[in-house]
Design a protein that fits this description.
The chain has 258 residues and is mainly alpha-helical. Helices cover 47% and strands 10% of the residues. The strands form 2 sheets. The protein has a 3-stranded antiparallel sheet with strand order 2-3-4, sandwiched between helices. Strands 1-5 form a two-stranded antiparallel ribbon. The relative contact order is 0.10.
Length: 258
């Protein structure tokens, strides 16, 4: 059934909506525009939009592109935007569903860790787009540390995978997977941006548990007791020094304070 069944020119708003759908890859309705838009311009616009989409996704998912190859990546991006049209003003932020989409594609079924690579790259991108937060002033640590609640940076998140995902990502970007052992997982990471660059810190399972408890609002004493109960060999002092040196926290507050 044609979108515009009569021979009259469609309403301008309908023509715009149809044009936008074609630009975003919904070619099944393209023939309804051909009689109203003559010449090769439509194909030029479609090619340009696809090129911009591929470039934007390659900037966010460079390791995925390296793993699957440029041609396969182009096909995946095209299929993704056909299934999930752009819904945000900035094209760089349009890939939030791409990792889950990869998990549904038969073409990448032989690399089950690729979904986590994509998810890690998306989280790195998301953290990079967060507003900057202040750094913890070490002088504010005066007083009983057990009662302090460590406040996470806005530009940070915890990430875990059954695979050695940061090593896979690094090897993919360097195009050298020869020395990589997929059996070295699981991996527990903190993504944090204390400056201009997003850092991927391997914090281990005890460190991840401790940070998760801190970030959920527990005071240091509660978080420390909780992690040491399940991981008695965890060197909490060394880990805290590493966290403070790495500027992982935005600040502290006392339990019960606003």
């Amino acid at each position: 059934m044609p979108v515009f069944p009569d021979r009259l020119a469609p309403p301008w708003a309908d023509l715009q909506a149809c044009f936008a759908k074609v630009m975003l890859g919904q070619d099944d309705i393209r023939h309804h525009l051909d009689e109203w838009l003559e010449g090769p311009g439509l194909s030029v616009y479609c090619s340009r939009i696809l090129s911009v989409q591929i470039d934007a996704m390659a900037a966010v998912f460079p390791a995925v592109r390296r793993v699957v190859g440029a041609d396969c990546f182009q096909g995946l991006v095209r299929a993704f935007f056909r299934a999930y049209p752009v819904h945000v003003p900035c094209l760089l932020d349009a890939g939030d569903g791409f990792p889950a989409f990869l998990g549904e594609q038969d073409s990448v079924a032989g690399t089950p860790w690729l979904v986590d690579v994509a998810a890690l790259e998306w989280e790195c991108h998301r953290v990079s787009r967060h507003a900057e937060s202040p750094c913890l002033d070490i002088a504010s640590l005066s007083g009983p540390i057990d009662d302090l609640i460590f406040v996470p940076r806005t530009a940070s998140c915890l990430f875990s995978s059954l695979w050695p995902i940061s090593a896979i990502r690094s090897a993919s970007l360097l195009q050298d997977m020869s020395t990589l052992s997929l059996g070295d997982g699981p991996e527990f990471l903190l993504l944090v941006r204390p400056g201009d660059q997003v850092l991927v810190e391997n914090v281990g399972q005890p460190g991840s548990v401790f940070l998760q408890r801190c970030f959920s609002g527990e005071c240091f004493g509660q978080a420390a007791s909780g992690v040491l109960a399940s991981h008695p060999d965890f060197d909490l002092q060394a880990f805290l020094i590493r966290a403070l040196d790495g500027q992982w926290f935005a600040g502290v507050r006392f339990q019960g304070s606003e």
